[in-house]
Amino acid sequence: MLQSMALDNAKNGSRATAIRDTLLAAREFLKANPSECKAMTLGNSASKFSNEGCKVGKHGGSECIANFLGPKNYPAPTVREYTGIADDVIEHVVTKGSTHPERQDKIPLKAAVAISQLPTKVPGTGRAGKRYGLHSKSVDLSIAPAIRPTCICLLAARGSLYRVSMFTSGQLVRVNLAGFQAEGVMFQAAVTDAVGHIVKQTSEQPPKYLVKLLFSFRGVSEVEVPADRIHADK
What we know:
Layout: H1 2-12, H2 16-32, H3 52-55, H4 62-69, H5 76-83, H6 87-90, H7 100-103, H8 109-116, E1 131-134, E2 137-140, H9 144-156, H10 158-161, E3 172-175, E4 181-182, E5 185-186, E6 194-204, E7 207-217, E8 220-226, E9 230-232
Antiparallel strand pairs: 1-2, 3-6, 3-9, 4-5, 6-7, 7-8
């Protein structure tokens, strides 16, 4: 059952919370049912040291889970990433394979793993203002409870930037059309700085603009291009 759930998650681009829940369930299952471990029987599919824990009866590690669920869809590094994300961070992780609108206000998987390592409370006595050594630096961990939420907000805010119109109608711009195709015309690699005017914004997510070119190329005088191909003319 767990294996079929994991396969469905991999195929259907399930939410990060569903993927992590499946991996954690697999971990507990393997701990309780060591006979189901496949890390010891798959030969070279596991690395030289990957099944050391399984050898001594410590099942449920990343390699153990990966081989149980299928290393093609759940390689050990991916298992470690998802299982290493904290409860208060996982809900903010972007869904793998999602389109831009769904990615807004979400954070990347690797960023979530890093944020999960940040402290959430003052260690030791917990006395506000007491300083502790962290990565060889003196850090005031009295602010620890605010560190994770702040990092999540800053990273998630990147998505909101796409909603801001970067160019205005009539604005003089230069467009990189190298390798771009429009109306059956493929622009050569040398066309990296075509001059034109913004006609209008045609899409917000992702941002695209209709640009009227100053000089037509093989009959093409207007092109709709992503914002990352446009820069303001200086």
